[in-house]
Each structure stands twice: as structure tokens, then as C-alpha cells.
């Protein structure tokens, strides 16, 4: 096992352990938030037929002379109807979305015509093909619409519906066991006794799993004993990924790594040159990724976003690149030389449109306020020994929406 690795090393090791989730088929309506396992091909062209883009009159331009004459109105075509061919020397009233009749080569909007009874007078000659959306104009039958690895957003869902994807091949959601450890913990809805605190990592990490596209098992609790951690490992045998929080540091009752060793876990690293989250442990148990997040709530949440979210995305076939933008620090942030600092910052635009970042309160790894009030992380590289006001940092927005 590598000990005390860099952030880059740790990130690579985590992504290397990602396993592709199996495919499953879901109904269209259930596909939102899921990731496509296969490319989607259009069943039929879009638009499927020549269609009017305006409420107006379908005409044959040759019938209009200089464009200011009159034509009899032969029929009205509504959306959903099937029109007869346009009789020569006539116009037909046509509604937006209705099929354009054979023979028509332009649509004149109602605003550019005056209808009196069964005749219509035009105010000018339309351009060729004006306001006609041609069959297959933006999608031809059989064309690939979406690639594997695409996230099904509400916008994508509408597109899937329009191209006839009644069911969708998606990656199964990774089942992620969240295990909060510590004898001091009581349920978040409970009242802590002397020496006890409410479990905040369990609910917080469970929410992070769901926001990253996973299915949560738990949160489970493990007491600080080998026996109880063994019990939890048995209870989480079905999970694709195990996420422990707490019990990974140097304390006498930091037993998570030992409990996993007893089951034959293989460790990729323990300790990362970062703050918060230095004691982060990562490995595999029977081929399943196992993460030992440090127990301090800020460390646990930040390490989840930096390492576990990309691990889950990689299993889904989604991109894992970090998206950062430059931001100028409004105030100095302490950063120890040799450790990459993930500072929680709030951002705003200054009058010149520059992105400016301020520390979101105290940066201690136990001060959960900084998670709640930040927009994301400012990366302060390990070779910096200070981050003064005015320094330009890489800002990474929280991706948990
Ligand atoms: N001698 C050393 N001590 C510590 C070191 C070190 O290098 N040498 N590292 C410190 C750092 S940094 C961190 S981070 C913590 C991580 O410790 P553990 O992962 O073993 O976590 P615990 O000791 O179990 O808990 C730490 C802290 O967090 C609170 N906690 C734990 N679980 C929860 C929860 N589910 N909800 C809310 N709060 C939780 C716990 O009560 C502790 O206060 O170790 C340092 N020590
Ligand atoms: O590395 Mo620990 O996560 O700062 O508190």
C-alpha cells in the first residue's frame, strides 16, 4: 500500500478501481437522472413530415404573382390532420404544427395576409419554403441522437420521448453502503446524552450518494469494536461500494481499516497530502471499492465530492473531469505547505465580471457551517505555503444539485 500520497495519485487510484455498472432497461418516465448505457438512435425522422411553423396560409408561390393578389381559401388544416394536396390557384388555412399539403411551397403568416370570408389577400411574396419545417430537417431516421454515458436530464428525457424511446437502456445505480462509525453517535433525530453527538455524516453522505446518482444502503452505524464492524460488513455484502466515515485515523478505537483487513481488503493508499481529509483510506474488498472517510464532517463531505462522486460517475460511464474556473481570493486562506487545501468558499462576481471567492467561515474540519454556506471548493495547491488576498485559485463549484 502507498502511504501519504498526493491528491493526483489518490484520484487516479480511486478511478482505477471503478467498475462499470451493469445495464438495465427502464421505462422512459423513470429514466430521468439515470445514465445511458447505450447510444440512442432516432426511430423516425424529426420533424416526421413537412410541418407549418406558423398559423397562416399554405400557398404555391407561383400562384401569388407579385404577392399582393387574392386567392380562394380551399380548406383549413389543423395539427393532427392529414391534408389533401393543395388545389392549384388556391390557398389553405394552416395551423402551426399541421402537415403542409403536397404542392405548397411556402406558408404566409396570418399577420401578412387579410382574410375576408373565403378569400385571402396577401401583403407580399413569401420567400421560397418560408415557415415550412421540412421532414428530417433536424434529425434523420436512424441517426444517433445521444451517446452512451449521457445523463438523462429533463431536456434529454423530452428528446428521448420525441424519438420514440419508450424504454431506455441505463446503467444500474451503484448500491452504496454508507456506514457511520463511532460510539459517540446517536441518531440525528435523537437526543445526545453526555459525551454523545448526533450523527451528521450518515444523513449527509446518504444525500451525497443520491445526488451523485447512487442508491443508498443505510446509513448503517458501526460501533468502535471489531465485532460490530464485522456485523456491519456482513449487513452490507450486497453493496457495490462501501463508504465508511470515522475511525480511520490513529486513535485506539479507529478500527475500520483493521476490520477490513480481517476480511482481506487490499489498500491502495492511506493518507493523502490534503486538508481536510488527510487520513483518507481507499482500497477494495472482494473487488468492491471501499472508502474510509475521515470522521470530521467537513472532511467526510469534501472527500466524498473529490473522490467518491467521481468513482460513482466512472462506474456509470459519465465524465469525471474536474470543472474549475479561476477565482480571485477576497481574503487570505491559511494553507499548510505540502498539503493541497480544499477551502470552502462562497463566490460572487465583482463589477468587472471577475469571479471572487471568500472563505465560507472558519475552515476547521469540524465546522459544518462551511459546507452549508459555500458554493464550492477553492483548490490551494500543495506547493503553496500561503494563499493571500488577490491570489487566483481554481474554483470548483459543488456539483451536488
Ligand atoms: N494523532 C492523530 N490524531 C488525529 C490525526 C492524526 O493524523 N494523528 N488526524 C486528525 C484528522 S486530520 C482527522 S480528519 C481525524 C479523523 O479521524 P477519524 O476518521 O478516525 O474519525 P473519528 O476519530 O471517528 O472522528 C473524528 C471527529 O469526527 C466526529 N464524527 C465522527 N463521525 C461523525 C458523525 N457520523 N457525525 C458527526 N460527527 C462525527 C467525531 O466525533 C470526532 O470529533 O482524526 C484526527 N486525529
Ligand atoms: O485532515 Mo482532517 O480532515 O483535517 O480534520
Automatic annotation (TrEMBL):
Pathway: Cofactor biosynthesis; molybdopterin biosynthesis. GO terms for molecular function: metal ion binding; molybdopterin molybdotransferase activity. Keywords: Magnesium, Metal-binding, Molybdenum, Molybdenum cofactor biosynthesis, Transferase. It catalyses: adenylyl-molybdopterin + molybdate = Mo-molybdopterin + AMP + H(+). Signal peptide: none annotated. GO terms for biological process: Mo-molybdopterin cofactor biosynthetic process. It is an enzyme of class 2 (transferase). Its EC number is 2.10.1.1. Its cofactor is Mg(2+). One of its GO terms (cellular component) is cytosol. Residues 177-314 form the MoaB/Mog domain. CDD domains: MoeA. SUPFAM superfamilies: MoeA C-terminal domain-like (SSF63867), MoeA N-terminal region -like (SSF63882), Molybdenum cofactor biosynthesis proteins (SSF53218). Belongs to the MoeA family. Catalyzes the insertion of molybdate into adenylated molybdopterin with the concomitant release of AMP. This is Molybdopterin molybdenumtransferase. The lineage of its organism: Bacteria, Pseudomonadati, Rhodothermota, Rhodothermia, Rhodothermales.
Amino acid at each position: 500500500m502507498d502511504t501519504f500520497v498526493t491528491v493526483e495519485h489518490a484520484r487516479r487510484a480511486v478511478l482505477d478501481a471503478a467498475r462499470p455498472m451493469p445495464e438495465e432497461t427502464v421505462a422512459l418516465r423513470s429514466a430521468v437522472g439515470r445514465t445511458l448505457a447505450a447510444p440512442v438512435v432516432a426511430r423516425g425522422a424529426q420533424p416526421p413530415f413537412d410541418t407549418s411553423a406558423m398559423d397562416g396560409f399554405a400557398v404555391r408561390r407561383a400562384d401569388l404573382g407579385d404577392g399582393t393578389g387574392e386567392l380562394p381559401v380551399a380548406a383549413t388544416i389543423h395539427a393532427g390532420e392529414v391534408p389533401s394536396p393543395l388545389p392549384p390557384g388556391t390557398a389553405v388555412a394552416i395551423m402551426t404544427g399541421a402537415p403542409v399539403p403536397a404542392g405548397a411551397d411556402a406558408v404566409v403568416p396570418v399577420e401578412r395576409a387579410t382574410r375576408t370570408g373565403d378569400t385571402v389577400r396577401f401583403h407580399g411574396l413569401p420567400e421560397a419554403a418560408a415557415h415550412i419545417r421540412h421532414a428530417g430537417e433536424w434529425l434523420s431516421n436512424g441517426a444517433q441522437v445521444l451517446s452512451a454515458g449521457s445523463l438523462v436530464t429533463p431536456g434529454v428525457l423530452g428528446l428521448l420521448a420525441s424519438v420514440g424511446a419508450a424504454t431506455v437502456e441505463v446503467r444500474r445505480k451503484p448500491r452504496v453502503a454508507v456506514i457511520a462509525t463511532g460510539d459517540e453517535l446517536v441518531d440525528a433525530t435523537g437526543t445526545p446524552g453526555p459525551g454523545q453527538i448526533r450523527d451528521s455524516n450518515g444523513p449527509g453522505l446518504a444525500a451525497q450518494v443520491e445526488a451523485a446518482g447512487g442508491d443508498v444502503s443505510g446509513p448503517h452505524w458501526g460501533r468502535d469494536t471489531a465485532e460490530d464492524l464485522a456485523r456491519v460488513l456482513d449487513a452490507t455484502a450486497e453493496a457495490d461500494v462501501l463508504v465508511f466515515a470515522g475511525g480511520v485515523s490513529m486513535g485506539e478505537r479507529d478500527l475500520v481499516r483493521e476490520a477490513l483487513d480481517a476480511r482481506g481488503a487490499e489498500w491502495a493508499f492511506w493518507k493523502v497530502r490534503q486538508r481536510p481529509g488527510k487520513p483518507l483510506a481507499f482500497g477494495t474488498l472482494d473487488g468492491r471499492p471501499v472508502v474510509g472517510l475521515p470522521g470530521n464532517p467537513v472532511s467526510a463531505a469534501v472527500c466524498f465530492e473529490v473522490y467518491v462522486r467521481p468513482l460513482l460517475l466512472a462506474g456509470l460511464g459519465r465524465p469525471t473531469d474536474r470543472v474549475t474556473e479561476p477565482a480571485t481570493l477576497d481574503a487570505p486562506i491559511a494553507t499548510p505547505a505540502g498539503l493541497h487545501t480544499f477551502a470552502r468558499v462562497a463566490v460572487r462576481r465583482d463589477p468587472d465580471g471577475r469571479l471572487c471567492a471568500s472563505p465560507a467561515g472558519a475552515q476547521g474540519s469540524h465546522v459544518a457551517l462551511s459546507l452549508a454556506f459555500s458554493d464550492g471548493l477553492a483548490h490551494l495547491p500543495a506547493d503553496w505555503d500561503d494563499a493571500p488576498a488577490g491570489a487566483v485559485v481554481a474554483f470548483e463549484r459543488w456539483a451536488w444539485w
